[in-house]
Amino acid sequence: MIAIDLKGKRGLVMGVANGRSLGWAIAEKLAAAGAELAFSYQGERLKEDLEKLTRDMAGTQLFQCDVTNEEELKGTFAALKETWGSLDFVVHSIGFAPRAAMDGRYIETTRDDWRTALEISAYSLVSVAREAEPLLAEGASLVTLTYYAAEKVVPKYNVMGIAKSALEASVRYLAYELGKKGVRVNAVSAGPVRTVAARSIPGFMKMYNKVGSIAPLGRNVTHEEVGNLGLFLLSPLAGGITGETVYVDAGFHIMGMELGEE
Fold it and tell me: Among 41, 147, 208, 247, which one carries the catalytic annotation?
């Protein structure tokens, strides 16, 4: 096994809600590889959770940052510039849609719910990249988290599927523009994982069990496997990869249909 050494590297992880978050799965791997981390959070409750999660991580910085608040977003990167001077990576693990937009039919999505889902789940990557750009070192990397519903219909995922489509398109455009500076941008498309956010999706456990039975590996992906892919994409080992949506879903996305027993 090739060990990934990120000692001396510094980066921001955005969107960790708790220890089951996929952003945290990536953060743990980054920390184990020697990287120094900063985290953004929204609200005092999440701050308390992050303080508990990161208490054994030396040199960790925490920033209140609502990505829909331009002042807080600019303030976060201004503070990072003052303390670190530059960034080697950013993990964007941010997504949200109102529950009502996922309970009903997609055709009934309201304008307000559409705007909320697209602004928080997709536009935030653009605004984060814009604020991070002046700090990004040569060879820096951005990673975001997406899902299969960006390209195929997943019932009840509704407007979040549209938001993930916009997110993946943004990855490609940002990769093109930032590539001139040697900066890479990629997306991790994880299969269903038991996170707090995922379990709020109507019918999630039924979908989780179905995916595990259809996937070529005969199971669902783990938090650790998602973390490993995030670490790889943010490391020099992925130096030639940019603008990609990379799947870690036990192979589920390659299946065209469920086949019966022979």
Answer: 147
To the query of whether residue 157 is one of the catalytic residues in this protein, the response is: yes
Burial environment of residue 204 by CB neighbours within 10 A (0 to 12, 13 to 18, 19 or more): middle
**Domains of the chain by start residue, with CATH:** 10-248 (3.40.50.720)
Determine which one of 106, 123, 148, 157 is catalytic: 157
Tens of pLDDT, residue by residue, the chain (262 residues): 568 999 999 999 999 989 989 999 999 999 999 999 999 999 888 899 999 999 988 889 999 999 999 999 999 999 999 999 999 999 999 999 999 998 889 999 999 999 999 999 999 999 999 999 999 999 999 999 999 999 999 888 999 999 999 999 999 999 999 999 999 999 999 988 866 665 566 667 787 788 888 999 999 999 999 999 999 999 999 999 999 999 999 999 999 755 444 4
